[in-house]
């Protein structure tokens, strides 16, 4: 077998597997007629295949099978990549949520009901300002009298109005 | 265990989505010079009875909608950049509200705000502060604390109180504050 090269080994394997063409098989047979080592190699390979065919698959003992089944799922080798792994599931779930979040943060035209709601909220805020004004006016009135209360609240309003006029004049 | 972590993650994301619009409105106003931080009294009084955060964008829309029926109202709104309101029920427990009132008042004094009107009664405390810059109003803050409620109002932008009374009539809303 030392002289017998890899080419013949491949041919022998193909012959035993039934994969060698008819021409190839004839050529191999002709070579084996003149080459005793090649003929012996073919016979040995054939005998080895016969022996392997007689070997039966042995069933594992029950005790070993039970032990294998008892191995927890967590200790079994994990697949290298799977979309069903928790981290991938979280990452995939976060994509549509992130898109929704970004779209919520974008300024967009509010609906008519949202504007009506905002108008209502603004009225509430102004009503509380009014209430604060009424309390302070009442307090001033009870302390210094009606005339002074009007004078104080009036002067505050005038002061603010004058600020507005100033700003308007500046704009002009 | 892994399912629990995933549930927490998804719950956290959901909560974030719900609160994002409110946070976005609040953040829009925080950078404005007339903004006032009122803190948070929810640990003492629970969630506020009323919370209002109106930014400039929404106020512009309200102003546009009002322009047809009342140009005066539209003009008033156009000068506003934001409106914030927080109202808590105090239920006779005014200590925390008074403490917060004093704290905010101290902050206002140290950051260029000027007192306009202040009432210091035993039962009722009212404070109106304004912030002006180069003759222009940047904001107004009103705080009222009594035995029923603690009111914190922050108007960002320009507001003329004399116009406010006239404008209130155009709002077809019934607000009962008593």
Net shape of chain B: globular
Task: Sketch the major β-sheet of chain B.
Answer: 6 strands, antiparallel
- Report low-confidence residues of chain A grouped into runs of 5 or more: none
Helix-residue proportion of chain A: over 70%
| Series of H and E elements of chain B | HHEHHEHEEEEH
Strand % of chain A is under 5%
User: How do the strands of the widest beta sheet of chain B line up side by side?
Assistant: 1-2-6-5-4-3
Number of helices of chain A: 7
The string of secondary-structure elements of chain A, in order, is: HHHHHHH
Radius of gyration of chain A: 49 Å
Number of helices of chain B: 6
* Overall average residue pLDDT of chain A: 73
- Helix- and strand-based class of chain A? mainly alpha
Shape of chain A: rod-shaped
Structural class of the secondary elements of chain B? Answer: alpha+beta
DSSP E strands of chain B, number: 6
Structure report:
The complex is a heterodimer of chains A (172) and B (178). Chain A has seven helices and no strands. Chain A starts with 5 loop residues before the first helix and ends with a helix. Chain A has 172 residues and is mainly α. The longest helix of chain A has 33 residues, at 112-144. Chain A is rod-shaped and about 140 Å long. The model of chain A has no long low-confidence stretch (mean pLDDT 73). In chain A, α1 (6-16) packs across α3 (36-54), α2 packs across α3 (36-54) and α6 packs across α7 (146-171). Chain B is α+β, with helices and mostly antiparallel strands. Chain B has helices at residues 2-30, 42-45, 56-66, 71-78, 95-109, 161-170, and strands at 50-54, 80-89, 113-120, 124-133, 136-146, 149-157. Chain B has a six-stranded antiparallel beta sheet with strand order 1-2-6-5-4-3. In chain B, α3 (56-66) packs antiparallel against α4 (71-78). The longest helix of chain B is centred in the first third of the chain and has 29 residues, at 2-30. The mean pLDDT of chain B is 83.
């Amino acid at each position: 077998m030392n002289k017998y090269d890899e080419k013949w080994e491949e041919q022998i394997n193909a012959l035993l597997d039934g994969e060698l063409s008819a021409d190839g098989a004839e050529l191999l047979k002709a070579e084996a007629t003149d080459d005793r080592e090649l003929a012996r190699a073919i016979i040995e390979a054939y005998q080895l295949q016969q022996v392997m065919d007689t070997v039966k698959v042995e069933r594992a003992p029950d005790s070993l099978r039970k032990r294998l089944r008892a191995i927890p799922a967590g200790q079994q080798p994990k697949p290298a990549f799977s979309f069903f792994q928790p981290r991938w599931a979280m990452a995939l779930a976060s994509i549509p949520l992130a898109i929704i979040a970004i779209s919520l943060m974008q300024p967009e035209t509010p609906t008519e009901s949202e504007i009506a709601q905002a108008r209502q909220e603004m009225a509430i805020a102004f009503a509380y300002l009014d209430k604060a004004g009424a309390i302070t006016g009442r307090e001033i009135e009870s302390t210094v009298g009606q005339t002074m209360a009007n004078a104080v609240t009036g002067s505050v309003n005038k002061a603010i109005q004058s600020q507005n006029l100033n700003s308007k004049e500046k704009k002009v | 265990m892994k399912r629990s972590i995933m549930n927490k993650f998804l719950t956290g994301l959901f909560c974030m989505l719900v609160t994002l619009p409110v946070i976005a409105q609040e953040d829009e106003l925080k950078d404005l010079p007339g903004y006032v931080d009122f803190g948070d009294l929810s640990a003492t009084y629970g969630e506020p009875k009323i919370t209002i955060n109106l930014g400039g964008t929404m106020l512009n829309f309200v102003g546009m909608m009002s322009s047809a029926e009342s140009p005066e109202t539209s003009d008033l709104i156009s000068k506003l950049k934001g409106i914030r309101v927080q109202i808590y029920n105090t239920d006779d427990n005014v200590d925390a509200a008074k403490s917060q009132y004093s704290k905010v008042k101290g902050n206002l004094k140290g950051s260029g705000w000027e007192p306009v009107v202040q009432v210091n009664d035993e039962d009722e405390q009212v404070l109106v502060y304004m912030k002006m810059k180069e003759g222009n109003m940047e904001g107004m803050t009103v705080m009222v604390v009594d035995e029923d409620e603690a009111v914190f109002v922050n108007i960002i932008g320009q507001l003329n109180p004399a116009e406010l009374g006239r404008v209130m009539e155009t709002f077809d809303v019934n607000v009962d504050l008593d």
